Automatic annotation (TrEMBL):
One of its GO terms (cellular component) is cytoplasm. PANTHER family: HEAT-SHOCK PROTEIN 20 FAMILY MEMBER. It comes from Carya illinoinensis (Pecan). It is found in: Cytoplasm. This is SHSP domain-containing protein. InterPro entries: A-crystallin/Hsp20_dom (IPR002068), HSP20-like_chaperone (IPR008978), Small_HSP (IPR031107). Forms oligomeric structures. Residues 42-156 form the SHSP domain. It comes from the Eukaryota. Belongs to the small heat shock protein (HSP20) family.
Length: 156
């Protein structure tokens, strides 16, 4: 094993401390395509879409703070029966030539939050409601089918 790292593309041993190869712990995970990821300017309010997730005996309840948005500006989707996505967009106010802005602190832009639903979630019965700037998404639980276990007698 060489003590000098190869910069010419030679594959090296995984235990070589000077290897330029880096193990990717997320290899194989499904992530959005680069074209699906909005730019940082488009996602300025991403961090402001705060979501609480609690589990009750009968359902999973998600509460998202989306102040100032109408229900038409928020979208709730279930993808592949297992991924809950809450997204939306807050548009900027139209500027008038005569307006003078002294401070702009409210964010605008797109936001998106995704959650992998557990096995016991019934994705076909999801309900959403919005009141006072809080979006509440309720995902009822369903009984998870347990596999049939058959005991086999051991002879001998």
């Amino acid at each position: 094993m060489s003590m000098i790292p190869s910069i010419f593309g030679r594959r090296s041993n995984g235990f070589d401390p000077f290897s330029l190869e880096v193990w990717d712990p997320f290899e194989g995970f499904l992530f959005p395509q680069r074209s699906e990821i909005p730019s940082s300017s488009e996602m300025s309010s991403f961090a402001h879409a705060r979501v609480d997730w609690k589990e009750t005996p009968t359902s999973h309840i998600f509460k998202a703070d989306v102040p100032g948005l109408k229900k038409e500006e928020v979208k709730v989707e279930v993808e592949d029966g297992r991924i809950l996505q809450i997204s939306g967009e807050r548009n900027r106010e139209h500027e008038q030539k005569t307006d003078t802005w002294h401070r702009v602190e409210r964010s605008s832009g797109k936001f998106a939050r995704r959650f992998r639903l557990p096995e016991n979630a019934n994705a076909n019965e999801v309900k959403a409601a919005m009141e006072d700037g809080v979006l509440t998404v309720t995902v009822p639980k369903e009984e998870v089918k347990r596999p049939d276990i058959k005991s086999i007698q051991i002879s001998g």
